[in-house]
Amino acid sequence: MKTRGFSPGLEGVIALETEISFLDAEKEKIVIRGEDLIELSKEKTYVDVAYLLLEGKLPNEDERQAFENQLKENYHIPDAVIDILKLLPKNTHPMDGQRTAISVLGGFDTNIDDRSAAENKQRAIKLLGMLPTITVNSYRILNGIEPISPRTDLSYSANFLYMITGKEPTELEEKIFDQLLLLYIEHELPNSTFAARVIASTQSDLYGALTGAVASLKGNLHGGANEAVMYLLNEATSATHFEEIIKEKLQRKEKIMGFGHRVYMKKFDPRALVLKDALYELCQIHGDFSLYEKCEVGEQLMEREKGIFPNLDYYAAPVYWMLGIPIPLYTPIFFSSRTAGLCAHVIEQHENNRIFRPRVKYVGKSYS
User: Fold this and answer.
1) What's the pTM?
2) Active-site residue, 313 included
3) Stretch (H or E) spanning 22
4) What is the rounded CA–CA span in Å between residue 338 and residue 3?
5) How far apart are the C-alpha atoms of 290 and 301, rounded to whole Å?
6) Residue 286 falls in the annotated catalytic set
7) What are the backbone dihedrals phi and psi of residue 366, each rounded to the nearest 5 degrees, phi first?
8) Residue range 144-167: average pLDDT?
């Protein structure tokens, strides 16, 4: 068996071939099935890109409408899922509630042993339809709030935001929230996607693969970074204070969440630039630029001191906040939006499978 040199964290290791997405760091492009994600975020909706991931092409208007209607047909979740969420301890993180609900849904799939692309695609559509309801009601139940019902008269993203805030979003709020979901939808092979593919490579089912992905995404070095960013921003009373806090953390050699990326390294995450503009729009509407000013000061300081730039989480966090979204929901929303990409990866893994079985570099006690 041929083995290669050790690479900590598998950095730079090519683990698989895919037709789904690619991070072209040199060209600063995020490619989704041949399309530029940043351009898609300016011209298309989350539903368009979810369709692209699952079907391999962008939909025409009729296809997009039919696809969104399929999602709406699956908004409601089994009563048993709600009952189980009510049994969870109240200190359960919403990500764990989300993970539990996805795992439970596997028990309702009467054809769970069918790993065909067609069947997995139908599962993906059902899950995409149910995820906003699961995500929001998991949070509500764990916080002693009655579950809320979805509204099929609103668009997919408008309904999601309505369920979170309890009020119908404005056109701008809907546009920005949809853009946020779209920018999180797929990102090549981060830890959670790799975890899903590793699980799927054993011929485990889609629910199992996604359950593992939720557990991976919960960590603050992955999806949980957006929550950490917002707590840090709220700790500061002003832009000057925010700068002081970051300087103190750097002196203590603490990691500043929301900066740097294993792939982009010393470059600006192009998704963050889109949300920086969105944050400015929201601040303008609210007549309060304090969050934007804090973010700019932090961005300039980190570039000056460390030579690193914001990633998506840095500007996603204040956008979530300005939309009225509770901090514990930031990462569950990230997962909900990423479900389309994760499902595409599981489908691809099942269609052309080879089980993952890497080797180790042994550094233990000597033996004979």
Assistant:
1) 0.94
2) yes
3) strand 21-24
4) 33
5) 17
6) no
7) -70, 155
8) 97
